[in-house]
Amino acid sequence: MASYEKRPGKGALFIKPSKSGENAPQLSGYFTLEDGTEVKLNAWLCASAKGELYFSLGVRKAPTLEEALDKIQGVPVEPKDSDDEPLV
């Protein structure tokens, strides 16, 4: 199987098997803009007043690795020079 390659103008939405809350999206994924910026996509299946089905979308800038780690750990990540500490 070929490895996944992010390309401008392309992305993917994945079905979330279980919702973490009432307002949680049913689909989630990423999209790469033409300039290379990655955005996070969320989608909810909705019905209009006439009963027509549609997807409501949410788009926001995707977090960087450092931002994601900060959120998970609650501690800011400070970049270190490779000469500061040896890798063990």
Description:
The chain is mainly beta and 88 residues long. The protein is 10% helix and 35% strand. Strands 1-2-3-4 form a four-stranded antiparallel β-sheet, with no helix packed on it. The protein has one helix and four strands; from the N terminus they run ββββα. A hairpin with a 5-residue loop joins strand 3 and strand 4. It has a domain at 24-65. The protein has one helix spanning 65-73; strands spanning 10-15, 27-32, 38-47, 53-61.
In short:
With 88 residues, the protein is mainly beta. It has one helix spanning 65-73, and strands at residues 10-15, 27-32, 38-47, 53-61.
Q: Separation of termini?
A: 34 Å
Number of strands: 4
Instruction: Tell me, rounded to a whole number, the average pLDDT.
Output: 81
Q: Order of strands across the biggest sheet? A: 1-2-3-4
Largest sheet: 4 strands, antiparallel
The number of helices is 1
Strand fraction = 35-45%
Q: Approximately how much helix is present in the residues? A: 10-25%
Order of helices and strands: EEEEH
Q: Low-confidence parts, pLDDT < 50 over ≥5 residues?
A: none
Q: What form results from the Cα inertia axes? A: globular
The rounded Rg comes to 18 Å
